Queue: 2 jobs
Job 1
Amino acid sequence: MKTKYFDLIDQTYDFPQEEFQLKDNNLEFHGIDLKGLIAEYGAPLKFTYLPKISDNIQRAQKWFAKSIKKHGYKGKYHYCYCTKSSHFQHVLNEALKNNIHIETSSAFDIDIVNHLKSKGKISKDTFVLCNGFKRDKYINNIADLINNGHENCIPIIDNYEELNLLQSNINGTFNVGIRIASEEEPKFEFYTSRLGIGYKNIVPFYNQSIKENEQVNLKMLHFFINTGIRDTAYYWNELLKCLKVYINLKRVCPTLDSLNIGGGFPIKNSLAFEYDYAYMIDEIINQINQACQEAKVDVPHIFTEFGSFTVGESGGAIYEVLYQKQQNDREKWNMINSSFITTLPDSWAINKRFILLAINRWNEEYERVLLGGLTCDSDDYYNSEQHMNAIYLPKYKKDKPLYIGFFNTGAYQESIGGYGGLQHCLIPAPKHILIDRDENGELTTKVFAEQQTSAKFMDILGYTK
Ligand SMILES: Cc1ncc(COP(=O)(O)O)c(C=O)c1O
């Protein structure tokens, strides 16, 4: 009978996969010897494998280039990185190697833009698309950037008042975009997104506030679907509605030349993940092309703002199973040496699933378990995988350490988890390792941050003042 953990994975999924291989019964991720990483740095740890960021950007750029060529599409494609998915310098430095642009969400993002500019990582030709609800500080920072000559900074109007606020702070003419408030999926808790301006109000807003306005050029229409870019009737329907607005606007607004379709590309959250990125891009280009040709308006340049897709698949978290508690006949709790709530907050807050695999002991028997975090919060657990209503791992043995890895965790988890700040039950944020490849393709590792210390907590909590 096949009862080894390897057999289970092998029978359930197509395994090995491009990024997941087995060597001596231990898991490798993109050729990284994870057991060796643990031997060197200990567990728990988080890591970022930087080359995956460039890899994904280049994949998307190629898919768009291919479809643009295939359809004879007359517009250009611009890849923007949505900084809120991970603001870290190492992430932006890697992403910016690939001739990309930036999308920002708040005032402090502009300080990052200025810093990157001072380091020569971005230039005044880099598009800086400013989304989000804009309060004074954000307006001032955007205005400073534009007043200092960054003409490719395009604030995306999220509410009517922003236009006046920008005009009072910016000296010359400037470009803007308008965000469409999309209609949410029928099963959602509300009908229309709070972000942006309703479909019906966009052309009237343009006619009333921008058309005769000598200081402002409307350049971009922005459209982001909360549920992401999916091959569903809902997505295609919303895209068509958006294209109608674009066409109506283009007929009265000659400066409009760009369509921003936001972020929302999914990432691999299971070994059974299937998504045809190239097909989706091809169909988007095709739909835009056709709609514009039928309406006899020029096609727009296309912008995307991929966050998860850029950085998600570069990250991982590794934990050690510390102990097993059997609370009844059926429920075995494997306790990890960290917390899910603080290190993978989306797993708790929005029930997000990541790829979960054992790192060692693949040739041993498996068992069904639940995973518990170290905080005393009953919600600090992980109990199923994306395509399996359970978790199976090699059997717990007191004298044989078991390590587990969560993969593709690189987007949003640090900012939502309040990286470097207070943590639930004061369970410290783990060590963070950066993994790269040198010019010969050899792997390199370095510590980005040590595990959080008690002194850090004591300081935040005011005990050292
Ligand atoms: C305006 C905008 N653009 C881009 C993104 C990035 O989305 P994702 O990480 O799904 O690519 C978001 C995410 O909330 C967003 O609100």
Job 2
Amino acid sequence: MASLITCPHCGTRPKEEFSVRGAVIARPSASEKDEAWHRYVYVRDNPKGRYQEYWHHAAGCRRWLVVNRDNLTHEVFGVTDAQASREGSR
Ligand SMILES: [Zn+2]
């Protein structure tokens, strides 16, 4: 069975059109200490289960998306545009 992702711009597409680019984590401010930047760049919690990742629709609209999924079962709970997601959290 093909794994499908529903892009908010392009509709339901095969996952091969996307690049998974890592967990959604808060970016430190420019004035944060080196330790905060080290953690942001290199340290990951690597949780098992449901969490959010950045996906890039490389073979489609080329937008950055936030995919909320279970990394154990690959069940997808929701896909939003990353910019809209960021603006919604402000
Ligand atoms: Zn798309």
